[in-house]
Amino acid sequence: MKKLTLLACSLFAFAAVAQAKETVAPVTSSKEVMSAPVSSKEVIVEPVVVEEVVVAPVVEDPWGYINLRAGWDFWSEYGNFTGNGDEYPVGLSKKTKDFGGELAIEGYKHWDYFDLGLGVAYQHHMKRKSSNDSFDHGAAGVLSGDVSGAEYKSVPIYVTGRYNINYWDWPATPYLKANIGYSFNFDSKDLDYGPHSTGTSVDDGLYWAAGFGVQYEDFNVDVLYGANYAKTKVDLPAGGNEKFDNDYERVTLSVGYRFNIW
Q1: Pairing mode, if any, of strands 191-193 and 142-149?
Q2: Which of 38, 58, 134, 144 is the one with CA 20 to 30 A from 47?
Q3: Domain coordinates of the chain in residue numbers?
Q4: Is the pLDDT of residue 168 over 90?
Q5: Annotation: CATH topology of 64-261
């Protein structure tokens, strides 16, 4: 009986101890569980600069072009006339005055360094300066007075060529130019001597010109030395006629504008 009582007490004590362990909360660590710190540095995303690349269009040289040109003769002279008869003047001056110039249209085929084409021009030649001379006028005796006239105009048709000196990347292109063709001469003026005058006529002849210029974009400026060859026939008061070389030579400053073809 005592053994049973002792065993019961032991079981009761063991149960009490177990109950006490369950009611007392276990001691946990005071350390807080911290998540990993986040860096305070800002993530800076640099903007992506997108550059717009503009591809310049490829400018192809034109197949050809039309060039309109206007020129001014800033120096010129005619052939002089020296008569050897009794009733017409002598000593016709070569010097000129007033305005002389031309209007031209030219069409070119274009290559890299060379342009070749055809042209036509209307040329208004300068007037001839008067010269004072004496001449034998038959029964009226020896007279003196101004001698002038025998001017004319021309329409040459010509082959024209340009050599372009564009070896370097210059904004303007220098060039050499030459024209050669045939000059149709007309409107021959009377030859005046003192109070009298006599009729004249003019023959056609060769035309040529050569010089240099500069092309900038569609504009061009050139200086050409040229000549229209002509023979003028002077009607003599006593009958008959006499011819003399009445070539018109000049230096012309021209300004032009071209229109590209294709």
Answers
A1: antiparallel
A2: 38
A3: 64-261
A4: no
A5: Porin (2.40.160)
